[in-house]
User: What shape does this take?
Amino acid sequence: MSYQELDHAAYMRKAIAQAQVAPVALFQSLIVDRETGDVLASGANDIVNDHPLVHGETDAIDHCWRAHRNIDWSRLALYTTAEPCPMCQAAIGWAGISLVVYGVSTPFLASLGFHTFDLRAEEVAARNTFSRCEIIGGVLQHECETLFREWVALNRPL
Assistant: This one.
């Protein structure tokens, strides 16, 4: 199965559904094996414990590594409700994941008051000298934007 054959919207819906079940962890990520279409791992940000390194992407990478230590990471795709921050995109590069699909952009998050870096995932990926990563943004963007807007409207801490 190639990346073009993956149903990006279906996997993003799974990530959104996970965020709706655990609204304090709306930054949700899934790692999918593009050869089988199986979801191998998921992850969420750790707002409850305020752990600065546990973002959805890094959590999913850690869960995938623990469960599938010998996997070929280049055949994996990572789906996430929001564009990876520079730390997460670098971790994706170190892991060797070759596709990232996200819902909302970093500028959108910044417009809602979320703390962000002014460095987009595509730029971080482009500067990686040892692995390639394709990035597709805006998948189910409206649904993801609604998720984040509703979270902010409830006056939850950023």
